[in-house]
Structures are given as C-alpha cells and as structure tokens.
Amino acid sequence: MVQEFGSGWAMLQPFKELQFGKAMDTLPELTKNSLTQEGRINPAIIKRPVEFNLRKGTPHALSSIHAETFTEDTYRLGCKGFYALFRHPGLKSAMHVIRENDFVTDREYIPGMIPKCGLMAPKLQQESPIQLNTVSVSLPVNFETRLLTSLEEHRRTEHNQHINKDKKISVARRTLLIGVHNTYTFIKPPRIIPMDFELDEKGDVRRLKFDGSLVFPLFYLNDMCGIVIELQYVLEVPSVVKPKKQVKSGIFGRKKNAEVTLPEVEYENHVATVGTYVYHVASKNLDGVSRLHMIF
Question: How far is CA 120 from the centre of its chain?
C-alpha cells in the first residue's frame, strides 16, 4: 500500500515587490529566443532563481496561525526550494484548449495542440466548422413523472414541516447544453438550447426535439475532440421559508421561544442534469450535417 503524506509546504509570492503600495509585475517574458532547439527553457536565461523556504506540515496550518504572528520563521522546516517564473504571451492563442486555473506541463497531450510543439512554442491543430441538425431525445416511460415524484419525496424528507404541501415541483423548461469538448475543457462556452416536447397517449412527455441547426465554428480534427450534450431540466421548486422564533410570554410571565412556520411565498429555479451524451466526430464524418437521436 502506498500512501502520500504532506511533509512540507510553501507559499509562493511572485508579485511581492511593491511600488507605491502596489504589487509590481517584475516577471520576465518568455520568447522564442528563450528556448533551446529541443523546445526547453534555456538555463542561461534563469539569472536569479527565486528562493523559498518549506514549512512543516501542510497548508492547513494556516487556519491556526494569526496573521500578526506569521513570519518567515513560522513552522520553518529547514529545506529550501528554487523556482523561475515567466510570463508566456505565446500561450495566449491556445488558452481556450486548457482548463482555467489548471497546471499543465509541456509533456502532456492536449487535444487541439500539435504534440511536437509542446507548450513552450504552441501550435494549434487543423480546425474545421461543423454543423449539427435535428437533435431528438427519447425518454423512458413516465420518466418526468418519476423524476418529479422522487424530487418531491426528497424535498419533503429534507424540509419536513417547513414546506407548503399544496405546492409541487414542476418543470419550467427542458434544455440541452451543447458544446465542443477536448477532454480538458469546453473549447468555447457551451450553448443552451430549448427543447420542444411530444406527448404520448397518456399525456406524458415521451420525446424531446430540436429541429433547428447549430454551427460550431471551432472544431479541431482530433479523435479526442467531441460534442458533449447534457439534457437538463429547469425546475420550479417552492422556496422554503425557515421558521422564525418569536418571544411569547407564558402564563406566569416567563418568556419562552416559539417557532412560527411561515408559508412558502415564491418559487426558485433549479437546474438538474439528468443525462449526458458524448458524440465523437471522426474527421471523415465531417460532411456538414449530422442527425442525432439519443435515448436516455
């Protein structure tokens, strides 16, 4: 059995230098001349690595340290580390294929980027727009009825007497969240598409349909890129008003607290994702039109 334990931590402050009370951007810029022929950072440009001290334990120790007593010697472990930080303007053109606030290395394979180039000198793969027409979703028998019943039972169990039993959870609208994904992130923000519905003989919703056309202008010709489709229900849920405590006088003049349950006065919208579908588009199938029929 292998277990990991945090034995040291550090807090890096790259913008620690101040001028007129504000942090200064003193980071050097990473350019093509800063790289070796293999695409690595040239050690010669790292003139002065930044030194930092490791502290004992884990960053959870910060919760028990007062800001006034936090110094360079607090929980010092006796180990030092060094790092070099650069601004990388050449990566701006490829930021949309990387997760926000994520750490990646130049050895990772990121769909949408040419692997040989890496993150030091990034180049994007060939792209092509795609068009998606007519998306339909077949629902199981009594799907929405069973969904609302389950949510209603959970609501009654969770809030108990603090709900108005005359009000029910209802479906406000049915939508599809559709976007191009490269296994790291949505290449562009996904779109939310409202769905029309068809009823069966009993009056239950049996099929959802979108008859329009969607164009995704940015799709990389990579087997790891695909279209992610999420079926979402926007639900109107009666809001729960928490009971207020009122002070009442007892028979003998003693004061006591009494809970007064107030009725629900309005509704809140909640989004529930009930199914996901990933459509892998091979480059040979990019003929401009695709029809999808999904069964959840």
Answer: 26
In this structure, is residue 151 part of a structural domain? yes
As a whole number of angstroms, the distance between CA 240 and CA 125 comes to 51
User: Is residue 23, in this structure, part of any structural domain at all?
Assistant: yes
The pTM of the full predicted model, rounded to 2 decimals, is 0.71
Report if residue 181 sits inside a domain. yes
Residue 182 lies in a domain: yes
Total count of domains within the chain: 2
Residues 204-246: tens digit of each pLDDT: 899 999 988 889 999 998 888 999 999 999 999 887 666 555 5
The token duo for 94 is 């490829």
Last residue of one domain, picked from the residues 87, 118, 139: 87
φ, ψ (nearest 5 deg) of residue 224: -85, -10
Looking at the structure, tell me whether residues 148 and 253 fall in a common domain: yes
The Cβ of residue 67 has, within 10 Å, a number of other Cβ atoms equal to 6
Asked if 295 and 279 touch (Cβ cutoff 8 Å), the reply is no
pLDDT tens per residue across span 148-205: 999 988 888 877 766 667 788 899 999 999 999 999 999 999 999 999 999 988 888 9
The residue range of the domain holding 247 is 130-295
